[in-house]
């Protein structure tokens, strides 16, 4: 008996929900389960990142240096810095790790599993925007151009790729 994926036809290794519609069977539980797992993975990651954001803002407000905040957060959660790095980027957060994170962050069980609305601007972001607006208003045309160019360089955006004011406001 051949194992899936060993043949020449790469479609053998795909789940039925990943096959083109012309040859895919009717939806099945495996596909729905996979979609649910992807959603919980994304939700848990977003919530874990929100926990880190809160932790970092609180630490910075208390005067902590930015360097080492990730390691301190990992230590608070009782996971290795390497594990935290993986969780931030791609590693799915399983049930056991989710409960551990919630416990050490002082959240109730299941907190990481719940979708949340975006919290809006943090205090640090509001302060940055106020400072930026003050600098913008105090600058002449050459200063405004230099400020725009500096910010574009920092994020690696070419002038043609930069969002318009209308597009920026729509994201907020």
Rg, Cα atoms, Å: 23 Å
Q: Could you say how many structural domains there are in total? A: 2
Number of strands: 0
Q: Which segments are poorly predicted (pLDDT under 50) over 5 or more consecutive residues?
A: 1-33
Quick check: average pLDDT? 78
User: Strand count, sense and closure of the main sheet?
Assistant: none
Overall outline: elongated
- CATH C-level category of the largest domain: Mainly Alpha
Which class of secondary structure composition applies to the elements?
Answer: mainly alpha
Estimate the helix proportion, in percent.
Answer: 55-70%
Distance between the termini: 56 Å
Q: What is the overall number of helices?
A: 7
CATH level-two architecture of the largest domain: Orthogonal Bundle
- Percentage beta strand: under 5%
CATH third-level topology of the largest domain: 434 Repressor (Amino-terminal Domain)
Order of helices and strands: HHHHHHH
Mind sketching the topology for me?
Elements: H1 29-61, H2 69-77, H3 81-89, H4 95-105, H5 123-138, H6 141-155, H7 165-171
Helix pairs in contact: 2-3
List keywords for this structure.
mainly alpha, 434 Repressor (Amino-terminal Domain), 7 helices, 172 residues, 0% strand, disordered N terminus, 2 domains
Short description:
By secondary structure, the protein is mainly α.
What would your notes on this structure say?
- This protein is mainly alpha-helical.
- The chain folds into two domains: 85 residues, 434 Repressor (Amino-terminal Domain); 49 residues.
- It has seven helices and no strands.
- α2 packs across α3.
- It is elongated and about 55 Å long.
- The termini are far apart.
- The N terminus is likely disordered.
């Amino acid at each position: 008996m051949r194992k899936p994926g060993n043949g020449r036809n790469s479609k053998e290794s795909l789940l039925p929900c990943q096959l083109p519609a012309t040859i895919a069977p009717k939806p099945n539980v495996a596909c729905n389960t996979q979609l649910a797992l992807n959603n919980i993975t994304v939700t848990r990651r977003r919530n874990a990142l929100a926990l880190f954001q809160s932790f970092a803002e609180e630490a910075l407000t208390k005067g902590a240096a930015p360097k080492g905040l990730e390691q301190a957060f990992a230590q608070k959660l009782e996971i290795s810095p390497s594990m935290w790095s993986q969780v931030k980027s791609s590693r799915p957060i399983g049930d056991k790790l989710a409960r551990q994170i919630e416990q050490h962050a002082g959240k109730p069980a299941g907190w990481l599993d719940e979708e949340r609305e975006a919290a809006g601007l943090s205090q640090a972001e509001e302060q940055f925007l106020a400072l930026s607006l003050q600098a913008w208003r105090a600058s002449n045309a050459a200063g405004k151009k230099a400020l725009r160019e500096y910010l574009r360089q920092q994020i690696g955006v070419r002038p043609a790729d930069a969002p318009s004011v209308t597009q920026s406001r729509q994201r907020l």
